[in-house]
Amino acid sequence: MGKKSNSNSNDNVLPSTHPSCFIGSSVIPIINKLQDIFAPLGDVDDRLTGLRLPQVAVIGSQSSGKSSVLEALVGRDFLPRGSDICTRRPLVLQLEKRSAGTGDDSLEWGEFGHLPEKRFYDFSAIRREILAETEKEVGVNKGVSDKQIRLKICSPNVLNITLVDLPGITKVPVGDQPSDIEARIRNMIKSYIKQETSIILAVSPANADLANSDALQMAKEVDQTGTRTIGVITKLDIMDKGTDARNFLLGKVIPLRLGYIGVVNRSQEDINNNRPIREALAYEEQFFRDYHVYRGLSDRCGIPQLAKKLNQILEQHIRNVLPTLKTDLTSHLVAVEKELLAYGEALESKGERGALLLNILTKYSEAFSAEVDGKSQAMTTKELSGGARIHHIFQSIFVKSLEEVDPCEDLSDEDIRIAIHNATGPRNALFVPEVPFEVLVRRQIARLLDPSLQCLRFVYDELIKICRACETVEMRRFSELRRQLEE
C-alpha cells in the first residue's frame, strides 16, 4: 500500500530545489482562510454554491502518477497506494506553510475536517485515516463516492495552496463499482474542473500515447483556450529505449498555453522499499542532468519547476479572480445581513414572546383595517383594492348577477294554481296559503346560489390579497403564525 512515514527528522530536510523555495505570495493565504471559513458549510447553504474558490484539481487516468506528484509537492509519503484504484473519494488537500521553529509547533502535522482539533504527527497514521474514512463511506471493495475528505497539512516544506486529488479515470468496473463507473467518475471530475476558478493539473504518463490522454481530453472539454490547464508528464524514466518526451514537453503533440512539466516518479519498488521522497527528488534532478535530451529543457523538467510554475500561475489566477470574488462575497453579505435583521432579536422568556406576538397581531390588525377602510399608505391608483374592491364586488358584480335572474323563470300560472290547490286540500281558500308560497319561493331562491358563491370567491380572494399585503417584517419569521392568520 505504501511506505511508512520515516520519523527521522533528517528525512524532512529537503534539497534547496524543493517546491517550498518558490513560495512568496500574499494572496494564497487569503484563499486558504476563506477555505477554512467555507469548509464547515459544505453545500448546505445554496446561496454559497456560486462561490467557488481557486484551487488546483489534479486529474488523470488510474495509475497515471497523480498521487506521486502530490506527495512530491508535499514532500511526505501519506497517500494510499496500490495497483488498483486508490483515490476513491475526492481528497481536498489544503497545504499551509509554517515558518520553521522549535518545539512541537515546528513539526509537520495534519488535521482532518471530520476530526477537528486532532493533529496527526505520524504521516502513516494520516494514510490509515484516509483509508478508514474512505471505507466507512464506500466500503472495502473498490467503491467510489463524490463525498469529500478534507485534510490540512501544516509544514515549513509545503506550498500555501489547495489541491484536490480526484479519483482516477477507469474503464472497467471492478469490485463493488457500478457498470457506469467511468461516466460517474468523469461527471465527478467535471464538476470540479468546469469552474473557471480551478487550475487543472492534467497528469499523463509518458509511456502512453499523449493523444489518448483522458486527462487532457477532459481538460480540453472545459478549458478550450487552455488558460487553466497545466500538463504534467510522469514516468519519463520508464519510456521505451530510443524514445523520449521532448516533443511532449515542447507542446508539439498537443499544445497547451500553460505548457508541460516532466517529472520522474518513485517506482512501486521504491515505495515498497520505503525510499524517502528526498532521495527521489535528488534522483530526479540527476536524471534530467544526465539525460542529454532534456538538458535544454531545464525549465520544463522536475518537481521543483512544476511547483514554481504552479505557484506563479495560481497566484496570478487568484489575483484575477479576487475582484469578482470580493464583489460576490459583498453581495452575499448584504443579503445575509438583511435576512438576519428580518429575524429580529432572540427571545428568551415567555413574556418576551407574548409581547412580540401581541405587537405583531396589533400591527397586522391595524394594517388590515387600513386596507379595508382605504387608509393604507401604499394606496394604488392603477386598480381597485381593499375595501373598495369588496364594495365593487357587491355593488356591481353581485348585483348585476342578481338582476340577471328572472324570479318567474320556469314558473307558470298553472304551476302556481296547482301549488295553491295542493295546499288547500278538499277546501276552497279565501287567501293564498303560506305553504305553496314557501315551496315556490324556495325553488326560485336556489337560483341565487351560483351568483352568491361567485361573489364569495371574489371577496375571499381579495381578503387573501389584503392579508398578504399586511404582512409585517416580523411575520416572515413565523411561518406557522402566518398560515394561521390566513386561515
UniProtKB/TrEMBL annotation:
The keyword GTP-binding applies. Keywords: GTP-binding, Nucleotide-binding. Gene3D superfamilies: Dynamin, middle domain, P-loop containing nucleotide triphosphate hydrolases. It comes from the Eukaryota. InterPro entries: Dynamin, Dynamin_GTPase, Dynamin_GTPase_CS, Dynamin_N, Dynamin_stalk, G_DYNAMIN_dom, P-loop_NTPase. SUPFAM superfamilies: P-loop containing nucleoside triphosphate hydrolases (SSF52540). The keyword Hydrolase does not apply. Transmembrane segments: none annotated. Residues 50-323 form the Dynamin-type G domain. Belongs to the TRAFAC class dynamin-like GTPase superfamily. Dynamin/Fzo/YdjA family. This is Dynamin- protein 3A.
